[in-house]
Write a structure and sequence with these properties.
Number of domains: 1
Largest sheet: 5 strands, parallel
Strand order of the largest sheet: 3-2-1-4-5
Strand content: 5-15%
Structural class: alpha/beta
CATH class: Alpha Beta
Number of strands: 5
CATH superfamily: HUPs
Radius of gyration: 15 Å
CATH architecture: 3-Layer(aba) Sandwich
CATH topology: Rossmann fold
Shape: globular
Distance between the termini: 46 Å
Oligomer: single chain
Length: about 180
């Protein structure tokens, strides 16, 4: 199985990468996250992923950071509707890239997070698979979330405190006050 795996951050790739490799999958990562704000945060997450992936011998594709793509995709949307739009446009780009590069499957590390809507992500992936004529690989990776984040902390891998967008950053600051 040859799979292009959308990656949101270094801690969230730890378990899915291990689980997929144990199944014999050839995994290539795709760090497409124009939603991450500010750019310094994007660069910090990218650097953490570069360091981790080098240690794992994992190939990662890094498309150009274009935050205007996030703004355009989510303009006028609020709350959960904005999150769904954000997931959809990032997974659509992943599916298109997977098809272009002749992968059999695409998937996402968002499926490891207990904070994301698993059923919505699964539906988005399946809908995009049908639309883009490529297979979506679904697995509930949440079982490995805690261990992976503990491993990340033990190894000194940067663990962010919010999803990535300006809206989640603002919510995170309110919670920590």
């Amino acid at each position: 199985m040859k799979i292009l795996l959308h990656i949101c951050c270094a801690p969230c790739i730890i378990y899915p990468l291990k689980a997929l490799k144990e199944k014999g999958a050839a995994v290539t990562g795709f760090f497409y996250n124009p939603n991450i704000y500010p750019q310094e945060e994007y660069l910090r997450r990218k650097e953490a992923l570069e360091i981790y992936s080098q240690g794992q011998g994992a190939e990662i594709i890094y498309p150009q950071y274009r935050p205007e793509e996030y703004v355009q995709a989510t303009q006028g949307k609020e709350g959960k509707e904005r999150c769904l739009s954000c997931w959809n446009f990032r997974l659509k780009k992943t599916a298109q890239e997977a098809k272009l590069r002749q992968f059999e499957y695409f998937s996402t590390t968002l499926l490891v997070s207990p904070y994301q809507d698993q059923e919505a992500l699964k539906k988005i992936g399946e809908d995009l698979a049908a639309q883009e004529k490529i297979k979506f690989y679904y697995e509930d990776f949440r079982i490995g979330y805690r261990d992976a984040h503990n491993e990340a902390r033990q190894k000194g891998i940067y663990c962010q405190k919010y999803c990535g967008c300006i809206h989640s950053e603002a919510s995170s600051h309110k919670k920590h006050k």
